[in-house]
Amino acid sequence: MRKRTTIVPLLALLSLALPAPATAQPNGTVVSGQARFQILSPTLVRSEFAGDRRFEDQATYNVVNRTFPRTAYTSAVRDGWLTITTSAMTVRYRVGSGPFRADNLEIKTGGTTASPWRRVVCATGQLCEAEDQLREGLLVAADHPGATGAGFVAGFSYTNNGITATVRAASAGRHRVVVRYANGRGGDGKHENRTLGLSVDGQAPRQITLPATADWNAWQQVSTDVDLAAGEHRVSLTRGAADSGNVNVDSLALLSPDQAYPAVRAVDDCRFGTSCEAENGVVSGAAKIAGEHAGFAGTGFVAELVGGTRLSQRVTSVPATGTYPVVLRYANGVGGDGKHEPRTVLINGQPVTLPVTANWATWATATAQVSLPAGTSDLTVTCPDTGCHVNLDTVGVNTSTQHLALGGYRRSLDGYTGNNGDPQLTPGLMYRDGWYLLDDTPSALRDGNPRVDRGAQPYQDGYVFGYGTNYKAALGDLTALTGGPKLLPRWAYGVWYSEYIDRTAADYRDRILPKFREHGVPLDVLVVDTDFKGHNLWNGWRMDQQKFPDPQGFLDWAHGEGLHSTLNIHPSIQGDDPDFAQAQATAKGKLAKGSCANCYVFDWADPDQLRAYVELHQKMPTDFWWLDWCCDGSGSSKRGVTADSWINEQYSKMGAFAFSRGFGSLQAGGYSGSGPLPTGPWAEKRTTLHFTGDTSSTWGTLKATIGYTSAEGVSTGMSNISHDIGGHNDTTGLRGSETYLDNGQVRYTTKMPDDMYARWVQLGAFQPITRLHSNHGDRLPWQYGPAAQASATKFLNLRERLVPYIYSLAEQAQRTGVPLQRPAWLEYPGSPEAYSTVDSQFLLGPDLLVAPITTPGDVGSTRVWFPPGQWTDYFTGQVYQGNTWATVSAGLDTMPVFMRSGGVLVERSADVSNDAKNPVDALTVHVTAGAKGEFTLYEDKGKRTRIKQAGDVLIVQSSSPSKRKWTVVVHERDGSSRTVQGSGWPVISLRAPR
């Protein structure tokens, strides 16, 4: 008899000195005074500055490994510059120049020169924008008017949320720290005076009071006196345990006793030979920093310059007085004056004409020759009095290279309709000009404890990637440095059924699973949404005994049928929940009231509260949990660790893996929390299957899924990405096939049009995770018309047959960082078309090109670019030559999917009902006649089978030989195919019979 055990564990988871000469160390380390450089690979160099010379060698929450193979490099000091050169990049640092900033550290890679570090130091009397400072658990927002710069830092809603600014006192003595803030009605419903802690150089904080303002649009200042020595200091504003927070901070300033609050913003330099972000310059007049139009570099752009506006960049390191090209990247749409025409701007007084662009989301460049003196000077862009009505994105000084992101990520796509513009993504690792700085300074140590406080001494810790167009090398470096994406159990790459609708154990056992079997549809994972809970459907902590009378028995039944299950969790608890008293006792009385009615929330950074939280799961046996994190207010006060990353790591220890939104937390702003936090993008992938949230059922959402999955994968290394196949929220009102009760009223489920459903399932079959989901909507094949049903059944079975192939790609991703789904430019970086097709096609592994149809109709078409080589249509056998375009049409029974000549595609030879109960004892291999290529099939317990095609021979080599039956489908160049049975294994002849 199978032992009935619960899967949850019971134990909870708990002043600058003179520089020294540069010295090479035997372990690939070069030290220059307070600066240390570790050469980890040809394309990765750690840059660390410690004012106290205490370099950090412990692993951090981001960086779990620094042991790389030895890399050849050279280092030398010449003319005051330390130069470190590998085969792929050069790093230069001006010896003895202090912390890294734009004018003292540069890299060169692949023809690009860049200044990876940006360090804003606010001198006495300068405006210190909050968004330019080091932030802990806070995002930048711009939804209230009156803020300067790009916006303001929002919330301070959780303990240890804070900002730290670097200031420079011009002289010793009494100064004022003045904070510009707004204090309206907070998320806790209160409108009252609030407090924060102000600390200088890591000393004990003093509490400051921020009086209530009229509303969130009203900005006021509060001042406190400090005594400072001359020089640099760190000023921190933090919500401590005794503070109420819940304020927005726009900026701060260090002032002498009689100085007024400044208007001039502190900025870092723009280094000669690099492309600099317009939003990082000094902006004056009516122009604002904005971000509502897609396609910009950096964090935004300077929006619609008019008469009297000014953008100024301080240019440094000009080698000699002369005339140099200055390249403006701009957009010129219909201006505020209603005109759409060429505009004129003045660069240091010299007029330059900027032709029109198609709209405000279309960017172009214009070049002017500008005289600059040697050394440092200001470069200013102004408008004639009549205005110029353009948006400026970047200013390139003696360079036309742009630092444009390839891909990006966000916490989720909640609320995306497909009709309201593209979701704004946070850039990650990949850029077209081939470099990135992973700033690890804010990260905690790997054990979750914060780094040591260094007082007034500066500290920086960052990893400079210089990969050029060797994007795979960058992903490999990232994986070695921060860990690879989690390899899920093989069954997780099968078919999932999920629906937000009230279900019971009997429903699954007696009605739903029999229908899957009856209609020949595979199923691997049952997702049980929130209505299974007793006491409270949202945040109850026991399974409803009326719906699930034997919770462990339900899990045993699922396992007996070859299924695995997950339960939906919302992370709060009602004060009248039957388990609340025990949870509060375990938490030692520290559970706090949340924003929801009569609910209490958890601080997972506190060991007692974490134990209480973990123990609540014990009465709900399952294989893993779905943390559907919404609206309740639980989080983590742990410094240097993103809340999502922290709790998802705990969930991965409690079950097979974490299934959750990722990269941020609700406490950092909004349901989707789209802004970046320091550890999210790098730590999350080690534990988590990323659920991208509640989107709408539209053709636009379907199409956006194509590009987003690839974008997130390459920018973060996250490979396990799960969208709601079919979307979550109905947009059509079409009556579905089921009824349910809503506040006592009988309602019908909804459904999509048949063509949309069929096309969405087709795309889902080639996504990293195939998870059917909806909000009270039909998602099962037999709930649709005959053509859509046949199509969905066909493609869900194809997905199940492809599980061995996809599992092998997932294992490769764990080792190499190259995600399952990838844009074509990852494999073909030299082809311009590979960059232009990211929103319409993708590669699943290196050998399968997928170009989904995303338009209505029983027959649809899409324009496909075929990368170099030869490509064969998986369904029709038609052959396409590479470096060409073709319009490919398909009915609902098929879709454009193509195999690369030389590629090896492996799938099960027959349809199966699930993966767990069906050994992979018969496989079919697709190859192209006469080609050469290989593929390694990964199986559980480290078993690998190498499949190699050498022209007319297929060689199968296994680390654990078996009696597996092999079938080979040979695709001929004329579009025909033939089948060869695997007699003669391990060498199978592919020659055509005469």
TrEMBL record:
Every CBM6 domain range: 126-255, 274-398
Entries under InterPro entries matching the protein: CBM6, Galactose-bd-like_sf, GH, Glyco_hydro_31_C, Glyco_hydro_31_TIM, Glyco_hydro_b, Glycosyl_Hydrolase_31
The entry's keywords: Glycosidase, Hydrolase, Signal
Residues in the signal sequence: 1-24
Protein family (similarity comment): Belongs to the glycosyl hydrolase 31 family.
Name assigned to this protein: Alpha-xylosidase
Provenance organism: Lentzea pudingi
